[in-house]
Every structure is written in structure tokens, then in C-alpha cells.
């Protein structure tokens, strides 16, 4: 397990996010679209469940084949180390956050909105500067769980667990919307993603608290996460973002725009409205949290 983690970590830092043309996750997305095209129709909840099965099935067969052919030799660990690298996005998440920050510093708000649109599902065109700060920080905290810490948690279940989580999380990102197209078809995958993320989200919130910048924020992070996340429509995301907000002493939530409609989200965190410096603090907290995970893996491997 430690070998898979180190190999994936090195690849992530060296390569970052793969080019769109060569990224297997993009190919997965195209395959998912074909499955949806075939199944989306009548009896949507049942077909949504069947769609999950048919998305996962070929990858399950490939994993079984790799295990039979290579078992636990050099190629086996390198193949699954590469799969773990594809499942985490530490470097690219930080790069996205800092790109948004740099665009704001340079006074190019339109460029910052374009960069923000790559990591959020909300409508960015009419966001003011404070809403850009909030959207950026919320997305980094939430994706810290979805794209970094949750896949690493599932590494304890083996490579198949990591692949299963990444597929379900990708399906949720594509089908987990409560609109006319997906409210029934994507229902099952949204529930499954919530279930899979429940424990990782709690652990991510604890990690954010442990890596907070000052001792008083450690307690504050726990208080924020447990007091305020229940009001959020996605409990896992609300818990993670509330813990992160408490860790850097800021307030998240408020009015935002989804599908060109204004939505009011409950307040998360405490004390002050974010500013440009808080994007840097958020990225730093993700980095500190990752170093915390690295040390934890090393410790667990040596006990």
C-alpha cells in the first residue's frame, strides 16, 4: 500500500493533471455519456441503478484480469499506482486555486471567472468579487475530500476500492443533479456517492482541524463542523467546508447562482468574510493536510 501511495504521489507532483487528449478520466466520461444515452428514458430510477452496474462492469473485469495475469509483481503495483495517481488531484487542485488568485491579483476578473468555472458547477458570470472568493474556497475544500483524501482512504480497501470510488464520484459529478434530466436517473448514484463519502468527509474535516493555523482554530473547526453542516443540502460537503472554514477563521455560504437561479446557502464557518489572502490559506491548509496524510501513511506502515 505504501508503495502505491508513494508512486502515485510522485506521478502527481511530476505530471499534474494529464492533457485532455490523453486523460483516461475524459475517456471514462465519454463512456458514461454513451451509457446514459442508452439507458436514460422510462423507469428512470431502475435504469439509473442498471447504468451504474454497466459502467463499473468492464473496469471490474479489467481489474480481475490484471490480478490474474500479474498478481502482486512489479507491473501490478505500477499499474495500480498509476490508477491511484489518476484518482487524486492534489497538484491540479492547488494550481486551479492559485490561478484564480493570480487572475484576481492581476485585475483580470473575467479570467478568474473562467478559471473558477473549471472547478465549480455554479453559474460564474454574475458573481461579485466576494462570491468568487467564497466559491473558490468552497470548491477547494470540497474537492480536497473528493479528489484527494477520499481516494486515499479507499486505498485501505485495495485498488478495486479506489477505482469503485472514483467511478461513482465521477458518475455523481455527471448525473447527480436535481434537474429534469437527472433527478430520477441520477438518484441512485447520488445516494451511493453520499454513502461512500460519509466516513472520508468526517476524516477530512478532522484533518483540516488538525492542520489549522492556530490552536484556537482547532477547537473552532470542530465546533463549526458539527454545529452548522446539518443545514447544508449536501451534508458531507457542508461538514467538510464548515470544518475548513473554521480552520482558517472565515465565513462561507450565502447567495450564489446555480443554473442562472439565485440560491441562498446557510452560513458555514465563523468570524469574517473571505478575502484574497484566504485563497492562499486554503491552498496551504490542503498542502498541510496532505503532508499530515503522508506522515500518517509512514507511521501506519511502520507499526
From TrEMBL:
<dbReference type="Pfam" id="PF03186">
    <property type="entry name" value="CobD_Cbib"/>
</dbReference>
<feature type="transmembrane region" description="Helical">
    <location>
        <begin position="48"/>
        <end position="68"/>
    </location>
</feature>
<dbReference type="GO" id="GO:0048472">
    <property type="term" value="F:threonine-phosphate decarboxylase activity"/>
</dbReference>
<keyword id="KW-1133">Transmembrane helix</keyword>
<keyword id="KW-1003">Cell membrane</keyword>
<feature type="transmembrane region" description="Helical">
    <location>
        <begin position="147"/>
        <end position="168"/>
    </location>
</feature>
<comment type="function">
    <text>Converts cobyric acid to cobinamide by the addition of aminopropanol on the F carboxylic group.</text>
</comment>
<feature type="transmembrane region" description="Helical">
    <location>
        <begin position="195"/>
        <end position="215"/>
    </location>
</feature>
<protein>
    <recommendedName>
        <fullName>Cobalamin biosynthesis protein CobD</fullName>
    </recommendedName>
</protein>
<dbReference type="GO" id="GO:0005886">
    <property type="term" value="C:plasma membrane"/>
</dbReference>
<dbReference type="InterPro" id="IPR004485">
    <property type="entry name" value="Cobalamin_biosynth_CobD/CbiB"/>
</dbReference>
<feature type="transmembrane region" description="Helical">
    <location>
        <begin position="279"/>
        <end position="300"/>
    </location>
</feature>
<feature type="transmembrane region" description="Helical">
    <location>
        <begin position="236"/>
        <end position="259"/>
    </location>
</feature>
<keyword id="KW-0436">Ligase</keyword>
<dbReference type="GO" id="GO:0016874">
    <property type="term" value="F:ligase activity"/>
</dbReference>
<keyword id="KW-0169">Cobalamin biosynthesis</keyword>
<comment type="pathway">
    <text>Cofactor biosynthesis; adenosylcobalamin biosynthesis.</text>
</comment>
<feature type="transmembrane region" description="Helical">
    <location>
        <begin position="74"/>
        <end position="94"/>
    </location>
</feature>
<dbReference type="GO" id="GO:0015420">
    <property type="term" value="F:ABC-type vitamin B12 transporter activity"/>
</dbReference>
<dbReference type="GO" id="GO:0009236">
    <property type="term" value="P:cobalamin biosynthetic process"/>
</dbReference>
<keyword id="KW-0812">Transmembrane</keyword>
<keyword id="KW-0472">Membrane</keyword>
<comment type="similarity">
    <text>Belongs to the CobD/CbiB family.</text>
</comment>
Amino acid at each position: 500500500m505504501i508503495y502505491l501511495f508513494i508512486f502515485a504521489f510522485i506521478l502527481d507532483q511530476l505530471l499534474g493533471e494529464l492533457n485532455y487528449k490523453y486523460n483516461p478520466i475524459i475517456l471514462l466520461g465519454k463512456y458514461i455519456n454513451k451509457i446514459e444515452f442508452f439507458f436514460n428514458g422510462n423507469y428512470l430510477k431502475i435504469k439509473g441503478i442498471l447504468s451504474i452496474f454497466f459502467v463499473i462492469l468492464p473496469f471490474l473485469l479489467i481489474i480481475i484480469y490484471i490480478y490474474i495475469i500479474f498478481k502482486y509483481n512489479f507491473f501490478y503495483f505500477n499499474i495500480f499506482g498509476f490508477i491511484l495517481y489518476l484518482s487524486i488531484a492534489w497538484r491540479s487542485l492547488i494550481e486551479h486555486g492559485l490561478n484564480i488568485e493570480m487572475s484576481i491579483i492581476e485585475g483580470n476578473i473575467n479570467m478568474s471567472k473562467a478559471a473558477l468555472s473549471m472547478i465549480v458547477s455554479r453559474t460564474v458570470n454574475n458573481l461579485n468579487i466576494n462570491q468568487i472568493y467564497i466559491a473558490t474556497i468552497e470548491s477547494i475544500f470540497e474537492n480536497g475530500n473528493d479528489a484527494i483524501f477520499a481516494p486515499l482512504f479507499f486505498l485501505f480497501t485495495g485498488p478495486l476500492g479506489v477505482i469503485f470510488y472514483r467511478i461513482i464520484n465521477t458518475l455523481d459529478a455527471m448525473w447527480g443533479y436535481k434537474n429534469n434530466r437527472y433527478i430520477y436517473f441520477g438518484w441512485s448514484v447520488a445516494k451511493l456517492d453520499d454513502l461512500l463519502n460519509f466516513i472520508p468527509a468526517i476524516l477530512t474535516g478532522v484533518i483540516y482541524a488538525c492542520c489549522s493555523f492556530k490552536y484556537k482554530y482547532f477547537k473552532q473547526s470542530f465546533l463549526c463542523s458539527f454545529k452548522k453542516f446539518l443545514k447544508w443540502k449536501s451534508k458531507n460537503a457542508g461538514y467538510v467546508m464548515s470544518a475548513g472554514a473554521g480552520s482558517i477563521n472565515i465565513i462561507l455560504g450565502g447567495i450564489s447562482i446555480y443554473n442562472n437561479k439565485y440560491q441562498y446557502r446557510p452560513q458555514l464557518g465563523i468570524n469574517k468574510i473571505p478575502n484574497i489572502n484566504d485563497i492562499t490559506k486554503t491552498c496551504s491548509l490542503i498542502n498541510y493536510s496532505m503532508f499530515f496524510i503522508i506522515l500518517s501513511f509512514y507511521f501506519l506502515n511502520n507499526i
